[in-house]
UniProtKB/TrEMBL annotation:
Function: Ferredoxins are iron-sulfur proteins that transfer electrons in a wide variety of metabolic reactions.
Pfam families attached to this UniProt entry: Fer4_15 (PF13459)
Domain 4Fe-4S ferredoxin-type span(s) in chain numbering: 1-29
Lineage: Bacteria, Bacillati, Actinomycetota, Actinomycetes, Kitasatosporales
Keywords attached to this entry: 3Fe-4S, Electron transport, Iron, Iron-sulfur, Metal-binding, Transport
Protein's UniProt name: Ferredoxin
Reported cofactor(s): [3Fe-4S] cluster
Length: 66
């Protein structure tokens, strides 16, 4: 699956990092970012829950097509 974080929308609530700490973290300014090496091909089942938990819908999750 592919994950996009709209940095212009993110408010740094941190709900994604709480829901899927193996995928998301927060940068030095408190905004969401992916952990290094997690940019593509993430299979963690909590990623979709993290996207749903975002209060401003800054995270988009798409299934990767061949």
């Amino acid at each position: 699956m592919d994950i996009d974080i709209d940095q212009d929308v993110c408010i740094g609530a941190g709900q994604c990092a709480l829901a899927a700490p193996g995928v998301f973290t927060q940068d030095d300014d408190g905004y969401s970012t992916l952990l290094p090496g997690r940019e593509n091909g993430v299979t963690d089942p909590m990623v979709r829950e993290a996207a749903r938990a975002c209060p401003v819908s800054a995270i988009t999750v798409r299934e990767r097509t061949a």
